[in-house]
Write a structure and sequence with these properties.
two-stranded antiparallel sheet; 96 residues; 2 strands; 1 helix; flat; 39% helix; mainly alpha
């Protein structure tokens, strides 16, 4: 019986180095403890903002409002489609 020498598959590509995030000089932080001041993130773009705001600018507010309006409309579309199918079904049955 011949012995089979199976090798494990080679892994292609290089290992990725971990990304080190550093703060720019003069950025707001509380020193070496690593505690970050109270903040929120913009609903639209994710930029750090003060806790009393929801978005960072008027542009982001407009984009957020447009996206929410579109999302709300997308929730109604299936119901409209079902209603049209039922209406069509009723017209076909009762027209005979």
């Amino acid at each position: 019986m011949a012995s089979s020498n199976k090798k494990s598959p080679k892994k292609s590509g290089k290992k990725k180095k971990p990304v080190m995030i550093s703060r720019p000089p003069g950025s707001e932080d509380d020193g070496p403890t690593g505690v970050v001041k109270d903040h929120k993130h913009c609903f639209n773009c994710g930029v750090s903002i003060t806790p009393d705001k929801d978005v960072c600018s008027n542009k982001c507010q407009a984009e957020w409002d447009r996206m929410m309006k579109r999302k709300k409309m997308m929730t109604y579309i299936p119901y409209i489609g079902i209603g049209l199918v039922i209406l069509f079904y009723m017209l076909v049955i009762y027209s005979q």
